[in-house]
Structure formats: C-alpha cells, structure tokens
Write a structure and sequence with these properties.
Helix content is 26%, strand content 27%. The protein is an alpha/beta fold. Strand 2, helix 2 and strand 3 form a beta-alpha-beta unit. Helix 1 packs parallel to helix 2 and helix 1 runs parallel beside helix 6. The longest helix is centred in the last third of the chain and has 30 residues. The model has no long low-confidence stretch (mean pLDDT 93).
C-alpha cells in the first residue's frame, strides 16, 4: 500500500504541555504545523487532579482543565492535529525529515520531539483502578490535597525520600515502603539523614506492593514482606509511587543522542545533535519535570524551529540557488577574522565571483547546517561544495582557483 505524503514546515510529535506550546509558537509564526499525539492530548498532566504551582492560577486548577485551555489556544493558530502513532523519523535526501505513521508520511523541515514519558508502575493488582484516585506520582502537585492525612510512599531513591520530606509539611504521617533491609535506602546521604530524623517519616522495611484496595478511592495498600511472605495491610489516604520514570524515546534510539537513562540530550536551545530536530518537555534530559518547565522548553523549541527554517530559506536563496558563490565563515568580533574577510573579499573580486560572508558571532546555525567551520571558505557551484580552504591550511586557495 502506497502511503500518502503530506508536507509541513514543522511536525510536533507529542501532545503534552511541551508539545502544545511548541505547536503554538510555530503556528503563530505562520508556519504550516502539525501536532501528532497517539492517545490523549494533554499528556501526564491530565492525570493530576489539582495543579497549584502553575503561574496564573492562584486557587489551583485541575490538570485536565488546564490542558483543555492549552488545547484551545494552540488550535487557534491553525495547527493541524492528528491522533496517530509515530512509527519513526528518518532524513530525506533533500535534508528534510520524514515522520512516518501507519498510513501517512509527513515531510517536515523541522521536527519537535515531545513524547514525554511514563511513570514506572508496580504492576500490582488494583493499581490501574486507582491511578489519580489515590495513587499519585508528584508530591509537588498533589501534597496539599493530603493535608493532615496519612500517605504511603513506594520507593527509596532520591525522589522518593526528598518528595516524602516535602509531604511531611502537609501530611500527618508519611510511611515509606522500602525493599531493602532496615537502615538501607537508595537516596543520597543528606536526604537519608534528614528523613531518619523526621518524626513524621516511618519506614516499612523489606516490603513491596502486593495489591491496592478501596472503593471509589484507594483506601489500603497491602505490602508483602520479601523475607517472610507476610502480607501487611496499610490503611492510607493516598499513595505516591517513586520507583522510576521511563522516557518515551525508544523510537529515537540511534537518531538523536540520549543520556544513560534514555532522555534526549539537547542544548539550551532545545537542539538535538541532528540539525532540524528539537526536543521539549519531560522527554528531555534535565533536572525538573513539571508543566511549567515543559512550557518553557516548548516555547524555545517552537521559536528555534522557526529560526532554523528561516536559516534554511536564507541558505537556499543566498547560497544553494546560486550558480557560483564563495561562502566564508568568520567571527566579526575577532580582529583576525575581520582582516581575513577583507582578503577573501579581495580574492572574490579578483576572480569575479560573488562572496557570502557568514558571521558566526551571534549565531553559528547557518554554518552548522552547511557543515562548515570557523575561518573556512567554501566554493559552492549549483548548490554543492566544489572546493574549500581553511585557516588550518593557511588558506591555500589553489583548489578554489582551479574549481573556478
């Protein structure tokens, strides 16, 4: 079956807070933009019943309601939305990217990956039933709803212990289920010491979750002692799972650089190692994963995608569409570079060829897209490099002269 092909300026993969913000910025820049989401627009934020730390909502707001506002706003700028699953991203011969789905291939000049991640679950019976009905994953988001109540934490790493300490500011009791022997947790020593001294923190050693119970809301977590097999019922008002977070990056392994935990590495401009591919939100390697940080990532990614496409247009109009042109990469703030530019301009004049100086002082994006390097001059003929010379070779221009 032949696939249908659709052309876009920007394709955003993932419809969470970061993806919607990136799409908003791209759409508002009058770029033809597509946002694709395989399941639920809004992502993990829709599972949070109350968000109190997103600016502009002093009384807090339901996560689903906030994401509905995001959804309404980005669509206002003409962004197309497809509820479909991305199958892969590959580079086309013309330098664009192919975002593949089952029925359609979407060709794009720039791609924003915002596929987020998923919280690791225990897999115990009853768990799915009580997600967001007593089972939470974010103490910062949900602590206030458990003011004066008893909660249970599953996990003993940095996130579990530090978030548990945060919960003690609100909760009357914070119990922690730990798989290790007494006194052994996986958190850093500072957090461990503070937790052991906190009168509200209580530990249940050598245990894992056996099942979750309740009615409409979670009421009890049954723990299993890993040494004796004993089932320990713990009546609680809420349970927080901090047993890991898995980024949705399997599709992009081998395409973009990932950190050891599988998150996408980016620059501060949300650029990956692939020109034209950006990443935003929880899928990115960073410190804090919240709606507010995803929004910031998405804004930068959408803006930089616009800049990247503008650079592509400049490259095409000013360089690749020319029959013959010299391109010189230099830093205008460096005296030596400015002196070398004068020499290159003299050389171009003597050989009756146009020259395009590319100043990399404020941005080296055009140079990176073309694969150039500082203090290098390249001769382009009909859109292809015919010859080049660099400062490392003392600007031996004989190959350029021969190619002219």
């Amino acid at each position: 079956m032949d696939k249908r092909i659709e052309d876009y300026d920007v394709v955003v993969i993932g419809g969470g807070a970061g993806g919607m913000t990136a799409a908003l910025y791209a759409g508002r820049a009058r770029l033809k933009t597509l946002l694709m989401e395989k399941s639920l627009i809004g992502g993990l934020a829709t599972y949070t019943s109350e968000i109190e730390n997103y600016p502009g909502f002093p009384e807090g707001i339901d996560g689903t309601e906030l994401m509905k506002l995001f959804d309404k706003q980005f669509r206002k700028f003409g962004v197309n939305v497809k509820l479909t699953d991305c199958k892969g991203v590959t580079r086309l011969e013309d330098g664009r990217w192919n975002v593949s789905t089952f029925r359609t291939d979407y060709h794009a000049k720039a791609v924003v990956i915002s596929t987020g991640g998923r919280n690791r679950l225990t897999g115990a019976p009853g768990e799915e039933k009580y997600l967001d009905k007593g089972i939470s994953f974010c103490a910062t988001c949900d602590a206030a709803r458990y003011t004066g109540k008893k909660v249970l934490i599953i996990g003993s790493g940095d996130a579990a212990i530090e978030e548990g300490m945060f919960l003690t500011r609100f909760c009357s009791e914070v119990w922690v289920s730990v798989v290790h022997d007494e006194g052994h947790v996986d958190a850093n020593e500072v957090a461990k010491e503070k937790a052991f001294k906190n009168e509200k923190m209580h530990f249940i050693w050598n245990t894992s979750v056996d099942s979750f119970e309740g009615d409409d809301m979670l009421k009890r977590v049954n723990l299993k002692n890993l040494k004796t097999g004993e089932i320990i019922p713990v009546d609680i008002d809420g349970c927080f799972l901090f047993i890991g977070y898995l980024p949705n990056t399997q599709l992009f392994e081998g395409l973009v650089d990932l950190d050891p935990r599988g998150y996408i590495k980016t620059t501060v401009d949300m650029e990956t190692n692939q020109p034209g591919i950006f990443a935003a939100g929880d899928v990115r390697s960073k410190t804090l994963r919240q709606v507010s940080t995803a929004v910031g990532d998405g804004a930068v990614a959408g803006y930089m995608a616009e800049r990247y496409i503008g650079d592509l247009e400049t490259i095409h109009d000013d360089i690749l569409s020319k029959e013959k042109i010299l391109v010189f990469y230099y830093n205008a703030s460096e005296e030596n570079d400015r002196a070398t530019l004068l020499k290159m301009e003299t050389f171009a004049k003597e050989h009756n060829v146009e020259i395009k100086p590319v100043d990399i002082y404020k941005s080296d994006k055009v140079m990176k897209i073309l694969g150039g390097s500082p203090l290098t001059v390249a001769l382009y003929k009909d859109g292809k490099v015919a010859a080049a010379a660099s400062a490392k070779e003392n600007f031996n221009l004989s190959s350029i002269e021969a190619a002219l």
